[in-house]
Design a protein that fits this description.
- The chain is α+β, with helices and mostly antiparallel strands.
- It has two domains: about 5-80, Roll (Ubiquitin-like (UB roll)); about 90-155, Orthogonal Bundle (DNA polymerase, domain 1).
- The protein has five helices and five strands; from the N terminus they run E-E-H-E-E-E-H-H-H-H.
- The protein has a five-stranded mixed β-sheet with strand order 2-1-5-3-4, sandwiched between helices.
- The radius of gyration is 16 Å and the shape is globular.
Length: about 160
């Protein structure tokens, strides 16, 4: 099977890779590019652990082919922090203990960032609705929602 050459932008940096036609974006990110923050929780797009943004749109990278990234702008959890400076959402997840095992955390953070870029002042209901595609087996969601609400408040002040 011949491989497909893909040129894309990932977290603001130009990237090129070769991938098989049936290889998912998640597999390319993890196995070919070493960006292991996105996790495979289900492989069917039901859990959100592999959430990334593609041209600003939230997607499950386990459902997108790597070849489809050609010419697109990809955002992953690795692109949230600026060097050693955590994104406000990352800081609030730590402050609110909104993570336990960590498998779902990158997906929740990417999804929450996507929400706050669209709606900087969400209601609790809007946060819960937006994050409904992300599953967590450890936290019970309340700490996650509180962290997102607190981050939104701080980000509006900044």
């Amino acid at each position: 099977m011949s491989q497909i050459h893909v040129s894309t932008t990932i977290n603001g940096d130009e990237a090129e890779f070769l991938c098989d036609a049936d290889e998912t974006l998640l597999d390319v990110l993890r196995d070919r590019l070493g960006l292991t923050g996105s996790k495979e929780g289900c492989g069917t797009g039901d859990c959100g652990a592999c959430s990334v943004t593609v041209d600003g749109r939230l997607v499950c990278s386990c459902l997108m082919l790597g070849a489809e990234a050609d010419g697109r702008e990809i955002g992953t959890i690795e692109g949230m922090a600026k060097g050693e400076e955590l994104h406000p959402l990352q800081t609030k997840f730590l402050e609110h203990a909104a993570l336990q095992c960590g498998i779902c955390t990158p997906g929740f953070l990417v999804a929450a960032k996507s929400l706050l870029e669209r709606n900087p002042k969400p209601t609790e209901t809007e946060v819960r609705y937006w994050l409904a595609g992300n599953l967590c087996r450890c936290t019970g969601y309340d700490k996650i929602v509180r962290a997102v609400m607190d981050a939104a408040k701080d980000m509006r002040r900044a």
